Amino acid sequence: MNMDRYQAALEALALQEVPQYAETARAFGVDASNLSKRWRGKTGSRADYIDNQSLLNNQQVRTLIREINRLSERGTPPTVAMVRTFAGHLAQKLPGKNWANDFVKAHRDELKSVYLRGFDMARKKADNWVEYNKYFQLVCTLIPSVDAS
Asked: Is 55 helix (H, G, I), strand (E, B) or coil?
């Protein structure tokens, strides 16, 4: 993988008294300019970028998932607003209004809460008195009335 080659090249640079970016880059099959920038701390890997842009680090994400599942198992599953608040406490800053929905979507396989799983809007629309009434009105028009005599 490309990231492994950059890491190996950085380790090789660490062993050199004077960094030889071009030679090392050729030896490991990476771009010399990017290698130089990483060595000098100007840029990092894509994984580093994602970690820096994320509200929570991996340990905090695991903590939040454990807490959501713990509450769900006790019969008090948290709402999306509660998840947002929990994340705010962990990160020491309140996440954006859509952060919790995105978090739930990204970690849906690990979460046990039924409240956090999306609600099927088609099912919600169909499950109401108006729709039932329309259905029965239609059934009544299609079934000929039975003569009581």
From this structure: coil
